[in-house]
Design goal:
The chain has about 525 residues and is an alpha+beta fold. It has 16 helices and 18 strands. Helix 2 packs across helix 10 and helix 12 crosses helix 15. The longest helix has 19 residues. The chain binds flavin-adenine dinucleotide (FAD). The site of flavin-adenine dinucleotide has 39 residues, from helix 2, strand 8 and strand 16.
Length: about 525
């Protein structure tokens, strides 16, 4: 199924539509992978759909992943074959429906002890068998020489061989923005900076929400036939609006990453360490000409929008990266550190968060609030299908078939993300080129170090609903993650262009630069 490619996300017109609409079929709370996926599915089925995000799309966990669309080799270890199969199927669908954002990546497991080779080799054969159904190339064992040729900076002391397999990689927050655009193209209304502060009830049944526009302060009373809570680690906050005494459903587990210059991992292959000496999984992944190293699994007591990597997490990443790379990264090499919180469904007696299920779960409260949580980016489409099937029943809507398996996501284009900076924009790349051609000063980068052009900033504000400098530098482009300190110097130019585009004054510009600096310093490791 093809869609229009020209949609511009315009917040004001969506807010006007909200004010003029008496009632919606479905209101979805949360603009991360889960909520956006649900909104795409609902709108594609023809239900009138409103999505409300308290901050920016993908502000929370959905912009802080390891950037993998993966079958999840490690879930085999948990014996969760059905999750692996589901993930592999979804990986294939994403390659097809968002080829501008998702691409194949070779992962190499370096083998240092004699027993690891057969152990991982056999594990990978099981994975191959599951993956073969979806047409992916098989894993293979690499000699020591081949391993070094593929990863020139791998630690060679004691290296015996490697095991190589294929998985997927993507840009998480760009996919989120493209999903929001897809919702709008399908007739739905995705609105950022709109926080749900209360639930409306009629005769004890959830009948809508009260939401506050975080830009204007205006409150909206919004009626809906069903309300879906897709708020990730904030799930229980919203469930408590329904039932203040409800038992918690979600446990938050923090995962930290660090970003290094490409010289630490030249070439096109990623490293996977399936089991560090303390039992964790470690990835070093080439991404946007840099290297992302992660992650950790640390239980945290509460959810927050800006989690900060703990000292011990950074220490873990530095020491373990040094074990597998010939050049040891030092704190001053780290271009940024970032953390995300996994929403894990708290079932059973598992004591370690790494042992909790990565599956998703749907709950319907006595008053009809539908909650979906858990899962991962890779399976967002299937999660959406399941929750909209459920919501049709709860809302008493006509049951309509899900159509997203073959639905192209906004930006769909033949070319892959490898084709230059604009490749990630897919079918929108041409519009960005035209912007630069019409105003040549927009073709230059914000600073020599930050490779974001003026055209990208203007486009983000004009067509992708970016409202702040942080939205542009952190999620419409990835300047914050690719170099937190350098991105601070790009903030004034970005603020100026945004002010012009959005009709803001100098005081707004100054506030944007100040706020961005404060935020970006949280991603800088060394003073
Ligand atoms: C460290 C780490 C690495 C990961 N790596 C991968 C990976 O490589 N591949 C993969 O497939 N998955 C990965 N995941 C999992 C994946 O990122 C998450 O499963 C997914 O992003 C969760 O999306 P979500 O929409 O449920 O939650 P979120 O992205 O957190 O979205 C919830 C949204 O709800 C909003 N919200 C909360 N309260 C309100 C309210 N009252 N009103 C309005 N909005 C509200 C929040 O602002 C937030 O934006 C990783 C997760 C972590 C933590």
């Amino acid at each position: 199924m093809a869609q229009s490619v020209s949609a511009m996300l315009n917040r004001q017109s969506l807010v006007d539509r909200l004010a003029a609409t008496e009632s919606w079929d479905l209101v979805i709370i949360g603009g991360g992978a889960t909520g956006l996926g649900a909104a795409v599915d609902a709108a594609a089925r023809g239900h009138s759909t409103l999505l409300l995000e308290q901050s920016d799309f993908a502000k929370a966990t959905s912009s802080r992943s390891t950037k993998l669309i993966h079958g999840g080799v490690r879930y085999l270890k948990q014996g969760n074959v059905s999750l692996v199969l589901e993930s592999l199927k979804e990986r294939g669908l994403l390659y097809r429906n968002a080829p501008h954002l998702v691409h194949n990546l070779a992962f190499i497991i370096p083998v240092y002890t004699w027993w690891e080779g057969p152990f991982y080799g056999i594990g990978m054969k099981v994975y191959d068998r599951l993956a073969s159904k979806f047409g992916f190339s098989e894993s293979r064992v690499l000699s020591r020489e081949e391993t070094i040729a593929r990863i020139p900076t791998v630690e060679t002391a004691g290296l015996l061989r490697g095991v190589c397999y294929q998985d997927g990689q993507f840009d998480d927050s760009r996919l989120a923005v493209n999903l929001a655009q897809t919702v709008e193209e399908l007739g739905g209304s995705p609105i950022n900076y709109m926080k749900v502060i209360r639930l409306l009830k009629s005769e004890g049944i959830v009948a809508g929400v009260i939401a506050r526009d975080e830009e204007s302060g205006r409150e909206f009373e919004i009626r809906a036939r069903a309300v879906i809570n897709a708020t990730g680690v904030f799930t229980d906050h919203v469930r408590r609006l329904d039932d203040p005494a409800c038992a918690p459903l979600v446990v938050a587990s923090q995962g930290a990453h660090m970003v290094l210059p490409k010289s630490f991992l030249p070439g096109d292959s990623a490293i996977l360490v399936p089991r560090t000496e303390d039992g964790r999984v470690l990835f070093a992944v080439p991404w946007h000409d840099h290297v992302v190293v992660g992650t950790t699994d640390t239980p945290v007591p509460d959810a927050e929008l800006e989690p900060r990597p703990l000292d011990e997490e950074v220490e873990f990443l530095l020491t373990h990266a040094a074990r597998y790379l010939s050049k040891d990264p030092r704190p001053e090499d780290v271009l940024s550190v970032f953390a995300g919180l996994r929403p894990l469904v708290a079932v059973g007696e598992a004591k370690e968060t790494s042992a909790l299920s990565r599956d998703h779960a749907i709950f319907v409260s006595n008053s009809g609030l539908i909650t979906i949580t858990g899962g991962k980016w890779t399976t967002y489409r299937k999660m959406a299908q399941d929750v909209i099937d459920q919501a049709e029943l709860v809302a008493g809507l006509d049951g309509r078939p899900c159509t997203t398996e073959g639905l192209r996501i906004h930006g769909w284009a033949e070319q892959g993300p490898s084709e230059g900076r604009l490749g990630l924009y897919g079918s929108d790349a041409e519009a960005l080129q035209q912007l630069s051609a019409s105003e040549p000063q927009l073709a230059s980068t914000l600073t020599p170090e930050v490779e974001v052009t003026g055209a990208q900033v203007v486009w983000a504000a004009r067509a992708e609903m970016a409202r702040t400098v942080e939205d542009v530098l952190s999620r419409r482009t990835r300047a914050l993650l690719l170099g937190a300190r350098a991105s601070i110097d790009a903030a004034p130019a970005a603020a100026r262009l945004m002010a012009r585009e959005l009709g803001r004054d100098e005081a707004w510009e100054a506030r944007m630069v100040r706020d961005y600096r404060e935020l970006a310093l949280r991603y800088v490791l060394t003073a």
